[in-house]
Design brief:
Layout (H helix, E strand, L loop, with lengths): L6 E10 L4 E9 L13 E7 L6 E7 L11 E9 L5 E8 L9 E7 L5 E2 L27 E9 L2 E9 L9 E8 L6 E3 L13 E8 L2 E8 L6 H6 L4 E6 L13 E4 L3 E8 L5 E9 L5 E5 L3 E6 L2 E4 L2 H6 L7
Antiparallel strand pairs: 1-2, 2-3, 3-4, 5-6, 6-7, 7-8, 9-10, 10-11, 11-12, 13-14, 14-15, 15-16, 17-18, 18-19, 18-20, 20-21
């Protein structure tokens, strides 16, 4: 588990260099006292582990840029991939002081070793295309949703999945999986969304798609407070959700999403351990009294149960007469 004495930690993403796992996470000082203040003071922290359980903290990976800049207020959730030349590229969400954090954009930084990251001159700053997505000017939501890039290669193209909102539909039901593609990780083209609005979610946060035991599946997170009224009436609980997928690059039917944890855990991620077993990590969100925690869990096993992804301890999964993923 990762718990920092000086900082809360929440959204996170992982990279594996073959020897160590690198954990990148949002962090903010506990001296703020009120965890709701953390978002506008977020930096990207860094820790490493050989077993996904015991972590060693390092210097922060990314901090807000000097003003004026599109990322001079806070740096938020992203993902890390390795380029063909051996360098690493981190895509992250950025908000600026001049816009009071309303506009969300996506950009990237580069590293040779996963420890020291540099901003490149002329790097692309990705914004939503108003042909398909809400923008800061057209939004019917507290802020513009264009964040949490999940980047992966599928065949000859790089894909980016994005927390986004469609520019049509009921205001509380516009959450979609945004999409962009690139031939080289540096030049990106925004594409239409990979899911449809009306699936029951105001936003679809921190999307990840992977193949667990050869079966594609997606994860995202959504709190009860961001569920559409239609889904809220059926089951008024948020958390981490899974959804079926034919391929990692969509399209996706998020109306078929099912919850795999409640709101005690948030921002679930799947990663393989050194034995090739799939594990689930998340950050601890609310305690039994509704208080906010802000730390990252130990890995938990996952398995397919009646065609759905399930998370739990080895004994819990075995008691359901299923095979733990390997």
């Amino acid at each position: 588990m990762l718990r920092l004495a000086s900082s809360w930690v929440w959204d996170f993403w992982l990279a594996d260099d073959g020897d160590r796992y690198h954990l990148f996470f949002l962090k903010a000082s506990r001296a703020l006292l009120d965890p709701d203040r953390r978002h506008w003071r977020a930096t990207v922290g860094h820790a490493t582990s050989t077993d996904l359980t015991t972590w060693t903290e390092h210097a922060d990976a990314v901090i807000p840029d000097d003003s004026p800049a599109f990322d001079d207020l806070a740096t938020w959730t992203g993902s890390v991939v390795r380029d063909d030349d051996g360098s690493w590229r981190m895509f992250y969400t950025a908000v600026s002081r001049s816009e009071d954090g309303i506009n969300q954009r996506i950009s990237s930084v580069v590293s040779d070793d996963l420890f020291t990251w540099r901003r490149e001159p002329g790097r692309q700053v990705l914004e939503p295309d108003p042909r398909w997505y809400e923008t800061a000017e057209t939004r019917e939501w507290p802020d513009q949703a264009w964040r949490d890039p999940w980047v992966f290669r599928d065949h000859d193209s790089w894909h980016m999945l994005i927390t986004a909102r469609a520019n049509h539909g009921d205001a509380d039901d516009r959450g979609v999986i945004g999409h962009a593609t690139s031939p080289d990780l540096t030049t990106w083209t925004v594409q239409p969304p990979l899911s449809e609005p009306g699936a029951g979610f105001g936003h679809i946060e921190v999307v990840q798609t992977v193949a667990v035991d050869g079966r594609p599946v997606g994860l995202f997170s959504c709190l009860a407070s961001e569920l559409a009224s239609s889904r809220l009436a059926e089951d008024p609980v948020g958390g981490v959700w899974a959804f079926p997928a034919e391929t990692l690059a969509g399209p996706f039917d998020t109306a078929q999403a099912y919850r795999i944890t409640d709101e005690r855990l948030y921002v679930g991620r799947l990663i393989q351990d050194r034995a090739g077993r799939w594990k689930f990590l998340a950050f601890r969100n609310d305690d039994e009294n509704g208080g906010w925690i802000g730390e990252i869990t130990d890995p938990q096993p996952v398995a397919w149960v009646d065609g759905r992804l399930s998370v739990g301890s080895e004994s819990q999964l075995e008691s359901r007469d299923v095979r733990v993923s390997s």
